[in-house]
Amino acid sequence: MGFERRLSLLAAAIAAAPLALAACTADQRPDGKSAGVRAAAPELALTPADRARDVPISAEVGTSVKGGRITDVRLTDEKGVQVRGEPREDASAWVPVTPLRPQRTYTAEVTATGDSGKTTTRRTTFTTTAASAKPEITSNLYFESNQTYGTAMPVTVAFDPPIPEAARADVQRRLFVRTNPPQPGTWSWVSDGSQAYYRAPDLWQPGTTISVRAALEGLPIGKDRIGDADRSATSKIGRQVSLEIDNATKQMAVLRDGKLIRKIPVSLGKPSTPTSSGKMVIMEKHQYATFDTRGDPNGGYVVDVEDAQRLTAGGEYIHGAPWSEGDQGNTNVSHGCTNVSAAAADWLMTVTQVGDLVTVKGTEVPLTEGNGWTAWNVDWDEFVKGSALPVPAGLRPAPAQAPHPGAVAGGSPAPVPSVGGR
């Protein structure tokens, strides 16, 4: 993501162009020749304010410039040790690569350069707050370093307790994602504030590098809480693989780069414990797993399985189920999982990646928002509505079309919680 990159911008020298205007627009020398227009130095304002105290350790150096651009930032502590950082993409602030330390004094020296080459330098000195005794909001970044993920992998940050709606914009401003090659996206919040997802309008391009930073340590969240940690990770996107499961045919289609490479018979959830229909993402892969559902309303069993791939937080998996091989392809007998043969499950483990898209259709219940990584279970126009910050113009949905005369508003059934199963 380049968080280790130090901000070091060089101002370009711009030669003054000859003036061909009347004396009312230029100074005159004693010999009557034009001396040229007097160029104004850029105006520059900084935050935190000079001598500010009790500044959060999540502080950034805010920069507001008129008539120029930021060309140098230097932030040091009271011992003269320099703090590394980088600018926001919109140049509105300079962000330290790690949280500041409590009860330390920092000085920021910022230089702006105008088109004429004239510069303005401003300084601000501030002191950070003492270590906070406020309770923390725990954040979990479901994106690890040095991994290869599938093309549907959303960057997911989960929060406990959930983030109140009024605080989501402040939190979202501290969630950074960079992709190489660039593939812009946006964040979107689950309605209860328990998760935020980041994705692009389309699946990631294979080979893309994604760098993430959830810079939340010490961030004031609402009136009573602070963020718990600063987390970052960088990983790559691998080959394009997707699974399509159709309840009508009881078949799973395995596609690589959009081409069918195999069909596998399946047995899905029986009517009392149906499998969810929707677009899911493989969350985990386990060679061996134990399902213990003794605390679930429709559970009460313990079973060991092999080659298990998790699809939902509620406990729906794809896994080997030798006991139901006679039903696979014709009858649903599971507790919500997708049963495949032992041989097929073993083969799938060699083909799939965490982050691959899995689409299930034709079952009795829809996938519930937030039951797993559900970023792809809505279209892009709906996804961007969940952002707590304005979405860049190039990513905004197209204007809504007026409904055709006589169109009738429809509805959808209430979501039903999924059930862990086998």
TrEMBL record:
InterPro entries: Big_10, LD-transpeptidase, LD_TPept_cat_dom, Transpep_catalytic_dom. Residues 241-361 form the L,D-TPase catalytic domain. Pathway: Cell wall biogenesis; peptidoglycan biosynthesis. Coiled coil: none annotated. Residues 395-422 are annotated as: Disordered. Keywords: Acyltransferase, Cell shape, Cell wall biogenesis/degradation, Peptidoglycan synthesis, Signal, Transferase. It comes from the Bacteria. Residues 1-22 form the signal peptide. GO terms for biological process: cell wall organization; peptidoglycan-protein cross-linking; regulation of cell shape. One of its GO terms (molecular function) is acyltransferase activity. This is L,D-transpeptidase-like protein. GO terms for cellular component: extracellular region. The keyword DNA repair does not apply. The active site is at residues 319, 337. The keyword Acyltransferase applies. Residues 403-422 have a biased composition (Low complexity). It comes from Micromonospora olivasterospora.
